[in-house]
Every structure is written in C-alpha cells, then in structure tokens.
Write a structure and sequence with these properties.
Length: 327
C-alpha cells in the first residue's frame, strides 16, 4: 500500500543482518483483562466513591495499568475520531511526510536510532501538541473531533491524577498548577501489517515519560505489559479506555505507583489503530517527594534530555534508574 512507510527499504541492512543470525522462536503470551474500574461510581454515595478511588490506587500500585468505563467520552466521539484517523493515515506516504503538509516533526515512523531489529518500531504516528490541535489546518475535519476528545480526556487525566495524589496524602493542586494543556499532547498511532511479526515490534518495550497516559485502542489487540516479571497480552475492551502510570508518577509517589514496561506486537495481516493522550508537566516542573526519597529531585526538562541522550548513545531509554539516589 502506498500509504505504508518504506520500512523494508529504509532498514534493509538491519533485516539482512538479522536473517543471517536468527531463527524465529514463537513465544506464547497469556491474554488477560486489566483491572476494570467503573468511574460512574465516583458520582454515587461516599462509600461507593471511596471504594472506586481505592481500586484506582491499588491497580496503579499492583499493575501500573487499569481500564475505565463510564469515563465521560462518548462512543460517538471515539468512533468519529477513529474514522478521521484512518483517513489521515490512508494518505500516500509522500503526502504524510511532507513538512509543508503537516506541522514540522508531527509525522513520525520507524526508529531512526535503531541499530538492530529489536530496536525497530513497525509503526507510524502523528504527534500533536494540545496547542496545535485547534489551529491545525492540516488535520481539518479531524481537528474538531480531536479537540472534543482531547478536552474531555484532559479533564479525566486531571481527575485520576488528583485521586492518586489524594491516596498518597499529597496536594491534588500540583497537577492543576503544573500539567497545563500546553505541556500535554496526543499521539495517533497506526501499526501496519508486518510480514516479519516474529522479529519486529510495533512499538518496542518502554515505559512512558509522563505522569499518566490514557489510551483508546481498536479491537485488533497487540498491547502487552510486564506483570510479575512476564509479558502478558491485554484483551481489548471496546467500551473502555486504558490508563497507565508514567515514570514521573512513579518518582513523585516514591515508587508507590508503578510505571511498567509495555510494548505493541505486530500483526502479520491486520493493521491496528490507537490514540494516546500524554499527561505531562511543563519542562520546568520539579519532581520531588517527601523524605526519605528514593530519587534525587529533577526537572522534567532534565529527565527528557537524559532519555534522549541515552536513546542516541545506547539505542534505548534507561529512564528512572538514572535518577536513583543510590545510583
């Protein structure tokens, strides 16, 4: 399909090198359902509300991932977003990669820093800062749907972050003050069918460098995460949004909440779509917590710079271990 990025040609040397060295091994990964939280209970009596908050905190401690229903984002908006997203990705690759067609740096694909197939992500994405959504002529019909989705999902992120802070006995105003719309962004993802699905990830294993991520995915599946030191596959739920804890929340909570490794596996015959909202602070925000702290205090800018440096030098992110006080 001429809308697909030229993965094979661009990363030819990596494929050639791998075919000489490896034999494919099929690893079976168990499928499971993430903890499911009905946010409608936050509007019921106090005991229901407190139980709902407790479930959110427990899932964030034990899994680092959970899914929510009755989240306030209508099925209509989610379906419209998917339709418009498909249209944008269906455009020819040459159109998508033109700098003048889309805001500079918004269209991304593959992994430019990859030195082996394990570091390659067989996917394409539009990375859209919240500030670009309303005035992004390039996305025209998608803009209004994206704006509706982003505004609602931003409110949901603040609500969940506030609950998690409250359960730590921390100030819930921290997020209102530091996680402004100008710091957050959406990423629309497409994972094309991949004929090398045993060797290549759709998205390589990683943790998220934010406070929270909210994900809407289709029913194809492919998201996997680490639980009890083994990979498990997340069963798609069309009614739910997936929430995961990012590195900053793990550091801010002093390791109470867990930012866990996750990845997307490729599918040999089906494409997969998802949209993620990243709840981030401004670059100057300092991440610190009460003593005794596991991590030294650091700014989000410093964290991002360290991650980029490690990716360039090592081909992968190191993340929080770089900021341990005992490091």
């Amino acid at each position: 399909m001429d809308s697909d990025p030229p993965f094979r040609q661009t990363y030819k040397t990596l494929f050639d090198k791998t075919s000489e060295e490896t034999c494919n091994e099929v690893v079976t990964v168990e499928e499971c359902e993430l903890p499911l939280v009905d946010l409608g209970r936050l509007n019921l009596d106090e005991s229901e509300m407190e139980e709902c908050k407790r479930e959110i905190a427990i899932a964030s401690q034990e899994w680092g991932f959970f899914q929510v229903i009755n989240h306030g984002i209508s099925r209509d908006i989610l379906e419209k977003l998917r339709e418009e997203q498909v249209k944008v990705f269906r455009q020819p690759f040459d159109t998508k990669s033109k700098k003048e067609r889309f805001p500079a740096g918004s269209y991304r694909w593959g992994t430019p820093s990859a030195t082996c197939l394990k570091q390659l992500s067989w996917s394409e994405a539009f990375h859209i800062p919240m500030t670009d959504i309303s005035d992004s002529g390039a996305f025209s019909s998608l803009s209004s749907t994206m704006e509706q989705f982003a505004t609602t999902v931003a409110g949901l992120a603040k609500k969940l972050a506030g609950i998690l802070a409250e359960k730590l006995g921390q100030k819930t105003t921290f997020f209102e003050e530091n996680c402004l719309p100008s710091a957050c962004y959406l990423r629309m993802n497409r994972y094309p069918p991949c004929p090398f699905s045993l060797e290549v990830h759709g998205l390589m294993p990683h943790t998220d460098s934010d406070f929270l991520t909210i994900l809407h995915q289709d029913e194809v599946g492919g998201l996997q995460l680490v639980k009890d030191e083994k990979w498990i596959s997340v069963k798609p739920n069309p009614e739910a949004l997936i929430i995961n804890i990012g590195d900053l929340f793990q550091a801010w909570s002093n390791d109470v909440y867990k930012s866990v490794q996750h990845r997307v596996v490729t599918n040999p015959t089906m494409e997969r779509f998802s949209t993620a909202y990243f709840f981030c602070p401004s670059y100057d925000t300092v991440i610190q917590n009460s003593e005794p702290s596991i991590y030294r205090k650091f700014s989000f800018r410093e964290y991002r710079q360290q991650v980029q440096e490690d990716v360039q030098k090592l081909g992968h992110k190191v993340g929080l271990p770089r900021f341990l006080l005992s490091h």
